[in-house]
Amino acid sequence: MLALLNELHRANKIRPLDYYFAQLINELSQQDDDDTQALATFCAAFASYELGQGHVCFDLAHIDKLFASGGPLQGYELDKLALPPRASWPQHLAASQVVGDGRPMQFELGRVYLSRYQQFEQQVSQRLAVPANISNSATLASALAELFAERGNSNEINWQKVAAAVAATSPISVISGGPGTGKTTTVTKLLALLIMQAQQQEQSLDIRLVAPTGKAAARLTASIGGALASLKLSEQVTQAIPVQASTIHRLLGVIPGRNEFRHHQENLLHLDVLVVDEASMVDLSLMARLLAALPASAKLILLGDKDQLASVEAGSVLGDICSFVEQGYSQGRAKQLAQLTGFDLVHHHKVSAAPCVMADNICQLQKSYRFNENSGIGFLARAVNVGRAEQIPPLWDKFADIELFALDQQEQLKAMVLAGYGCYLELLKQTSATGARFDEHVRQILESFNRFKLLVALREGSYGVAGLNEQVENWLSEKNLISLNQDNGPWYIGRPVMISQNDHQAGLFNGDIGVCLANESGDKRIYFELADGKVHHFLPSRLPTHQTVFAMTVHKSQGSEFDHTVMMLPEAMNPVLTRELVYTGITRAKKKLSLFAPVHILNQAVRQKTQRASGLIERLAAK
Ligand SMILES: Nc1ncnc2c1ncn2[C@@H]1O[C@H](COP(=O)(O)OP(=O)(O)OP(=O)(O)O)[C@@H](O)[C@H]1O
């Protein structure tokens, strides 16, 4: 077995890490009989391989995909590998020295886990599935009525009000919704409600707002500020709502050089209410650590879009939790929510015959206030989301805010790039201001740069990040918008960069975007607007790892939005091209989306729904 795994590792079919882990397991299972040892070694390599692919475990029910085209075992046959008969695997794994409690691997419900990940899954399911308080409360009903005053058709269910009612009565709740469905607005009203309840009892609440990345935290800060400005809340309530969001890592307290946080189950966080935005980006391990550090008395509200790309690291926690939306509320919960909101949820919504704790703690917002019936972006996002590729073609002609181009329509792309990036480059040529006005000038430049973005699916290749960045630089240089001469080295004025590594000391995080500008003395510095809302500058030599960012991957664009988004899909199919990737890219566009893609690739990607192996749904269903 090790010889086969070594062959796969040398052919780059599995990672060195997968092979070395299998080697270790092979040594540790020497006491097992030969068949069991071979199977344990095989399972170790592929449990590790699957983690690298984002799966929490190696699901034996889906072993065939390893042998399929593009899989690491393509060209091999399961029956011909030196493994015991398939039907005997559970017995072998149960008997192995390396499988079980206190051992490196676990086997449960047909899934092989690295033990740590099984523990994460158990911790997350135990901590998430806290029953809602389903008693009725006339005070809560009237507070909700005041905050969500009905306008228009009051028979139509106002899901924002239902979401607030769910979150007000659940220790742990999830509000999912597509772009512009009012997640921030709803949570701001909910916080106002919780603050009013606490103030009536002469208590104060320690509320924290967090997001997985610095960029997403900065956006949450801005959108909470926007929601506060548009809602007419009393001064006393407004004052008690935090306006500054931070990253989850900062909240938990990163210890430099160590893979643990300052806050954990023995050193709990001090807070009463925690709001986590962009929860789809939170992987299983981070979710487990966050939940472990959360005091039992605290209220947790997870906000996110279940249809977006899952986290970069293993797991699809938000997607797994939100699969319970389909189930509907339990009878008791539907009745309570009807009493609290005035909407007939019992008859107008699915009610589950088999109640489940998680289903009672979720609300899916349904209506987008950003994308109305005239929005092609909204229609396109919905068609992609339900995998209806055949609904897409008529949309291109019908709506002005979406357009489709072939990949070789380079002149059109060039014109968009010059118009999109020309604005901030013109702006930075204007006579620079000084002092505080200089900061304002920088802010305008960064804002202008962030209005337009090129998104790609892949890192490599001519339609990947590197190839496109080079192409854009050449186009901008041809028009003298940037100066790419040798003396500048990589740092020409106007070069935009994205940080790709956290540097806690510098306060720069993966995903932060800055632009190279001349400071007041004419020296080159890279300017960033960071999560604290202030403009910071750095010497080029002091930046952590970074890349030019005229083009970025859809993965990196999560948590950001751009007025005009140009997305490119490559000429050949690739496993990263999925429905979630296309949906995430489309929904980064606020006002206009231009898609450069071969139609057959778009169609195939839309039909390719990501399935991440995990046992979380089954664990939650059992609660
Ligand atoms: N019930 C409502 N009636 C009218 N406008 C609303 C309503 N709810 C939200 N909006 C408006 O819709 C826009 C989007 O709302 P909000 O920012 O709360 O949504 P979101 O789901 O957090 O969006 P994002 O996709 O940016 O995360 C805002 O301009 C907000 O004022």
Automatic annotation (TrEMBL):
Protein family membership: Belongs to the RecD family.
Record's catalysed reaction(s): ATP + H2O = ADP + phosphate + H(+)
Database matches in CDD domains: DEXSc_RecD-like (cd17933), SF1_C_RecD (cd18809)
SUPFAM superfamilies: P-loop containing nucleoside triphosphate hydrolases (SSF52540)
Domain of life from the UniProt record: Bacteria
Native source organism of the sequence: Motilimonas cestriensis
HAMAP family (alphabetical): RecD
The keyword ATP-binding appears for this protein: yes
Domain UvrD-like helicase C-terminal: 549-595
The RecBCD enzyme subunit RecD N-terminal domain, residue ranges: 11-113
NCBIfam families to which the protein is assigned, alphabetical: PRK10875.1 (NF008127), recD (TIGR01447)
Protein name: RecBCD enzyme subunit RecD
Pfam families hit by this protein: AAA_19, RecD_N, UvrD_C_2
EC number of the protein: 5.6.2.3
Residues binding ATP: 177-184
Misc: In the RecBCD complex, RecB has a slow 3'-5' helicase, an exonuclease activity and loads RecA onto ssDNA, RecD has a fast 5'-3' helicase activity, while RecC stimulates the ATPase and processivity of the RecB helicase and contributes to recognition of the Chi site.
Function field: A helicase/nuclease that prepares dsDNA breaks (DSB) for recombinational DNA repair. Binds to DSBs and unwinds DNA via a highly rapid and processive ATP-dependent bidirectional helicase activity. Unwinds dsDNA until it encounters a Chi (crossover hotspot instigator) sequence from the 3' direction. Cuts ssDNA a few nucleotides 3' to the Chi site. The properties and activities of the enzyme are changed at Chi. The Chi-altered holoenzyme produces a long 3'-ssDNA overhang and facilitates RecA-binding to the ssDNA for homologous DNA recombination and repair.
Gene label: recD
